[in-house]
Structure formats: C-alpha cells, structure tokens
Amino acid sequence: MTEKLGKSGKLVTFEGIDGSGKSTMLSRLQKVDESEPLSCSGSVFTREPTKETLTGKAVYAAIENNVDPLAELFLFLADHAAHLSDTVLPALENGKLVVSDRYSDSRCAYQGATLNGTISDAFNFVCRLHEPWTRKPDLTFLFDIRPEVSCERCKDRGAQTKFERVDFLKEVTANFKKLAEREPDRFVILNAEAAPEENEKIILEKIRAILK
Ligand SMILES: Nc1ncnc2c1ncn2[C@@H]1O[C@H](COP(=O)(O)OP(=O)(O)O)[C@@H](O)[C@H]1O
Ligand SMILES: Cc1cn([C@H]2C[C@H](O)[C@@H](COP(=O)(O)OP(=O)(O)O)O2)c(=O)[nH]c1=O
Predict the structure, then answer these.
(1) Which terminal residue of the chain, N or C, has fewer Cβ atoms less than 10 Å from its own Cβ?
(2) What does the entry list as the binding residues for ATP (predicted)?
C-alpha cells in the first residue's frame, strides 16, 4: 500500500538535533523557491510537529507537561498521520515538491531515545510503527552537529524544550546516524557547523537532481 502513496511528487526531509539549522535552511530554500521555483508543479514547505493544529498543539502541550513518553510517542504519531493526510499526500498527489522540517526519522531518533530502557528495542519499535502507512521521503538531509554546539546555539532563542540537553542529544545523534547507515541512498549527511551558504548549495544540487 505504501508504495502507491503520493507517487507523483517528491518528498524531501530535513532531520537533525535541535539547533542544527534546519528551520534556517528551510527559510533560505523557501526564498530561493520564490525567486526561482524549484519545481514546475509548485513547492510546499512544511514541518513536524505541525503548528496551530489540534494534533500539533497536543504535542507541544505534551512536551511542556512531561507526559508519559509512550503517550507522547502516540501524540507525535497522531500529528504525523494528520500532517500526511492534510498536507503531504495531497501536495505529492498534485506532483509538488514537499520539503518538511522534521518527519518520521525524528520519531525513530528522539522517541527511540526517550523510550530506551522502557520498551525493548525501542528504536526499531518506533521505526516499525511507521512502516505500514507512512510515505517514505525520497531524500533526507541530516544536519550533523556536535550536541555541545547546537545547545550553545539554542541558548539564544529563549524557551528551551526538555530535549535540549547534551547527553540526551548524543543518544539522538547516534540514532540518526544509525538511520543514515541503514539507508545511504536516501540520506545526505551535511556538516551543520559549516556556513549555511555551503549547505544550501549541496541541498539545491541534490533536490534539482531528483526533480529532473
Ligand atoms: N550554519 C549555521 N552556522 C551558525 N549558526 C547557525 C547556522 N544555521 C543556523 N544557525 C543559528 O542557530 C540557531 C538554531 O538554528 P535553527 O535553524 O533554529 O535550528 P533548528 O531548526 O534545527 O532547531 C539559530 O539562532 C540560527 O540563526
Ligand atoms: C517531530 C518530532 C520532534 N521531536 C522533538 C524535537 C524538538 O526537541 C521538539 C520540538 O520540535 P521542533 O519545534 O522542531 O524543535 P526545534 O525547532 O527546536 O528543532 O520535539 C520529537 O521528539 N519527536 C518527533 O517526532
């Protein structure tokens, strides 16, 4: 069933720990797209957790209120399901390019870590939960950065989430790297400590190549 989902468009995702520069890059890409459209069918720039939606609000409330980690996982999954059906699949079915700031790999990496020790083989459990129904990205950029550097960057932006701790983010980073090793054809690992201009160039080249 999943092979048929959103077949005509292309799905690109940005993944990485907090403060790795994903949203900065999404805004840059959006600007490029405004002056020189990346796809002739149009582009949609989106994110997970979603904002201003019922499921997105539930996710942020869960993060702020320290709910049970398994309950939190299912809220993130509910948000992903709603995001897929409201935004991602309709755009892909219309042949558009969809670029999402975070997607399923964030669940495998983050909830694989929050549930580590509570559920046996948590990382694979979370990955498997997505398999029967989601739409895999065509291309994923992993923003690779030392957690010490990303936490330093996050300090400047006010409210911090409970996830923004160096030790926790080291575990999340290891999970992201495991995902990239499993699917080397889908993942492009970026040095997120480099200048944004450098990474923007790599990203644009790769996106243009899959749209050809
Ligand atoms: N390549 C970069 N080099 C230095 N600082 C950066 C870079 N990219 C983003 N930043 C800064 O780091 C902070 C976190 O970036 P942000 O894009 O919000 O990360 P994320 O969306 O991954 O959490 C912001 O203050 C941003 O201006
Ligand atoms: C999408 C997603 C995000 N998260 C976490 C990462 C962030 O710490 C937090 C909020 O996401 P986000 O708003 O993307 O954070 P940031 O802009 O700081 O990168 O939720 C998960 O734990 N699992 C998920 O599936």
Answers:
(1) C
(2) 16-23
Locate 106 and state its tokens: 């964030």
Q: Which domains does the chain have, with CATH numbers?
A: 2-211 (3.40.50.300)
In angstroms, rounded to a whole number, what is the distance separating the alpha carbons of residues 103 and 107? 7
How far does the centroid of ligand 1 lie from the alpha carbon of residue 192, in Å? Answer: 9
Q: Is 21 annotated as a binding residue?
A: yes
40 C-alpha to ligand 2 centroid (Å)? 31
Provide ipTM, 2 decimals: 0.96
The predicted-structure confidence for 57-88, as pLDDT tens digits, reads as follows 999 999 999 899 999 999 999 999 999 999 99
Pocket of ligand 1 contains residue 136 by CB under 6 Å = no
125 Cβ below 6 A of ligand 2: no
Q: Is the CB of 102 under 6 A from ligand 2?
A: yes
For residue 103, the one-letter residue type is Y
Instruction: Identify the residue whose tokens are 């080249």.
Output: 205
